[in-house]
Design brief:
Elements (H helix, E strand, L loop, with lengths): L1 H28 L18 E11 L12 E12 L6 E15 L2 E5 L5 E5 L8 E18 L9 E21 L2 E5 L8 E11 L2 E8 L8 E2 L2 E2 L3 E11 L1
Antiparallel strand pairs: 1-2, 1-13, 2-3, 3-6, 4-5, 6-7, 7-8, 7-9, 9-10, 10-13, 11-12
InterPro entries: Beta-barrel_OMP_2 (IPR025665)
Protein name: Outer membrane protein beta-barrel domain-containing protein
Pfam family, one: OMP_b-brl_2
Length: 241
């Protein structure tokens, strides 16, 4: 899984700036001098997005800690609705897909009665992998401000809003010598997600933050303490028209 994240990051990091900076230049050069260039006064911005994030678990019990690499890949489409004459202020709504992985020491298993077990893994336990992954369908809703014009594709942007999501696939994987525990059905998991987002940047590279507003396991307990963990994601967001 880590190799996939690195390959995707490498591809996006090197290919996206080139596409963003040369696409319009190539288009203009292909137009004969005799053909007038028509400026689209009803332009829209940032219809497609691709993001890479580092994922953190917050509000976790004292016994829970993260280790190893935790990351996410995010992609989708938004419909841009400018709300002023200059078209630099807009509302955007869309649909996307997200894959997130978290490496930590929270063991998720099942007892003989089918009840979920939550335990913290201590350092004396020999294991190589303990992580859970979640695949989501997401619906972003953003308020957008930017310095764009119909003639330029390089501008400052500040986007903020909410992101609604649903975890359609969850997998907890624990691996140790001669033993593996996989859980995909965890009743304590809140599959409906709600998070606040904030994105700002210039041209290709944009800093992105996501913070979940509801707990992943609101009904779960660890040593009589509620596992009220939330998700915090920070990374880069790339936009394509």
């Amino acid at each position: 899984m880590n190799r996939i994240y690195y390959l995707v990051f490498f591809f996006i990091f090197f290919s996206t700036p080139l596409l963003a900076q040369t696409e319009e230049e190539i288009r203009l050069k292909s137009i004969p001098d005799s053909v007038p260039v028509v400026i689209d006064s009803l332009y829209r911005e940032d219809q497609f997005y691709i993001g890479l994030t580092f994922n953190l678990i917050s509000n976790k019990p004292e016994a829970i800690s993260q280790s190893g690499f935790s990351g996410g890949i995010h992609t989708g489409f938004t419909r841009d609705f400018p709300i002023n004459k200059r078209r630099n202020i807009a509302i955007a709504a869309g649909l996307g897909w997200s894959l997130n992985s978290y490496s930590h020491n929270l063991f998720i298993g099942e007892d003989d009665n089918g009840e979920t077990i939550f335990r913290s893994l201590t350092r004396d336990i020999d294991y190589s992998t303990n992580r859970f992954t979640a695949q989501l369908i997401e619906a972003p809703l953003e308020f957008r401000w930017r310095t764009s014009t119909p003639e330029t594709y390089k501008f400052w942007r500040i986007y903020t809003g909410l992101k609604f999501g649903y975890i359609y696939h969850f997998r907890s994987n624990f691996v140790q010598p001669d033993n593996q525990v996989v859980q995909t059905d965890v009743p304590e998991l809140d599959r409906f997600r709600l998070g606040a987002t904030f994105t700002f940047g210039y041209n290709t590279f944009n800093f992105h933050v996501y913070y979940s507003l509801n707990s992943l396991f609101p009904e779960a307990r660890l040593n009589e303490e509620t596992i009220d963990i939330s998700v915090f994601r920070v990374g880069l967001m790339f936009y394509i028209l």
